[in-house]
Amino acid sequence: MRLNNITNPSAKLLAFCVMSLMGITSARAAQPEPWQLGFQPAATDMMARITSFNDFLLILMTAITVFVLGLMVYVMVRFNAKANPVPSKTSHNTMIEVVWTVIPILILLVIAVPSFRLLYDQATPEADMTIKATGYQWYWGYEYPDHGDIAFDALMLEEDELQPGQPRLLSTDNAVVVPVDTTVRVLVTAADVIHNWAMPSFGVKMDAYPGRLNETWFRANKTGTYYGQCSELCGIRHSFMPIMVKVVEKEEFAAWVEQAKVEFASYDGANTNLAEVSATQLSK
Fold it and tell me: Which positions fall inside the Cytochrome oxidase subunit II transmembrane region profile domain (predicted)?
């Protein structure tokens, strides 16, 4: 069900409420959707665990809120001046004080155990391949050091460059291509200011600092095209440096690697020739 296909405002609001109660989101693709409720569909086991933990916390905090609200309503009704004209002179109750101290501690433990386990499991495991992502104002550059030093830049497609089906402000001229069911280490850095490499469907969000390498990872278990954006304010065109990742079968990735070695060789050669010309001119 797509809420953006509903034109009647009242019907859209009703559908939104029904979908909220049923736990249904409008997101059916790995990109933001109009009227979306919740996270984008998870493409990694880690993001699925993050989503599950978020849902657990939502249920827990809702239960606490309803319980506290019920206590407040009960106290206002049961102990108001009309219903209780002679108030109790009790100053304290040992049992109640123990309960309202112990129960919050237990709740925090229930939250802490899965939280710390999830945080611990986000440490980078042994990777099958490595990609280096470098943030520039305002685009991303990528390198594949394990595959013949493939290197290219990924710039946002302008509206007149978009093909049918390509989302506005999220599509790039070159996509990061990775194989499915493969642990990918991502080295994140920047060349000018602080950026952030964020891919919601992968559960990945890592700051990129100039002169420093940060490390994150993902293991996509579904093929498809996934979109993210720079998530750190980095200048006037901060919102125009998207991230596009294509997850493909391993055979398709191997074919892409061979093609990329040829396609981006001319790009590297042009940069090398330009550097040589500049060095020659400077020496003169």
Answer: 31-126
The rounded distance, in Å, linking the Cα atoms of 37 and 19 is: 9
Report in angstroms the alpha-carbon separations of 236 from 38, 140, 179, 223: 28, 16, 34, 33
pLDDT digits (tens, 9 = 90+) for 53-81: 999 999 999 999 999 999 999 989 988 88
pTM, entire model: 0.77
Domain boundaries, the chain: 1-38, 45-121, 129-272
CA angle 191, 194, 196 (to 5 degrees): 105
Q: Kindly report each contact of residues 111-118 with a partner whose C-beta sits within 8 Å and lies 24 or more positions away, as own/partner.
A: 111/57, 111/60, 114/53, 114/56, 115/53, 118/49, 118/50, 118/53
Q: In the CATH scheme, what is the code of domain 45-121? A: 1.10.287
CA dist., res. 262 & res. 152, Å (int) = 12
How many secondary structure helices (H) and strands (E) does the chain include? 5, 10
Cis, peptide link before residue 100, omega less than 30° from 0: no
Nearest partner of 206 among 221, 220, 192, 196, judged by Cα: 196
* Best mean pLDDT range from 81-85, 89-93, 124-128, 279-283: 124-128
Distance CA 209, CA 193 (A): 7
What is the CATH architecture assignment of 129-272? Answer: Sandwich (2.60)
Residue 49: half-sphere exposure toward Cβ, Cα within 13 Å = 14
